[in-house]
Amino acid sequence: MKQAFHLLHAAVLSLALTGGAVAAEKKSAATKVTETAKEAVAKATGKPMPMNLRADMIDTKAKTITMKRKSDGAEIKHVLTDSTVIMNGETPAKLSDIKAGDSVGGTRLKKSDTEYEVVKITKFGPAAPKKAKTEGEAKPAEKKP
Predict the structure, then answer these.
(1) Whole-model pTM?
(2) Which range marks the domain in which residue 70 is found?
C-alpha cells in the first residue's frame, strides 16, 4: 500500500514538472500563432496593415514598388491598383513622383508572403538621416522595477 502511494506520488510529480515545460512551449507557440493569426485575419477580412518601406525599384508601367528584405534578400513586391490613393502629406501625388531609395509609408493588403496590394500611400521622400551619437551624449535613464 505504501509502495503504491509512492508510485502515485512520483507519477503526479513527474506530470507536474513536465506540465511546466509544456506550458512554456504552448505559450511560445501561442505567440507565434497570434502573430500569424493577425496577418491571416488582415488578409481574410481585407483590413489594411501599416506599411513603411524603402523603395528599391519602381516600375511605373507595371505600377509596382519593389523592396529587398535585408534578412534574406527576398524581393517584396507592392502592387498599386487604380483605386490606390497616393498622397505626400496633404498634397496629391503620382507614382512617378516616388524615387528609388525613398522611404514610403501608408497601408497595404497582404496577398502572399512576397506580394502586397497598396491601398494608400500617405508619405514618401528621402529617408531621414540617422542621428549619430556623440561621445558625450548621455544615455536615457533606465527605469528600475
Answers:
(1) 0.59
(2) 48-126
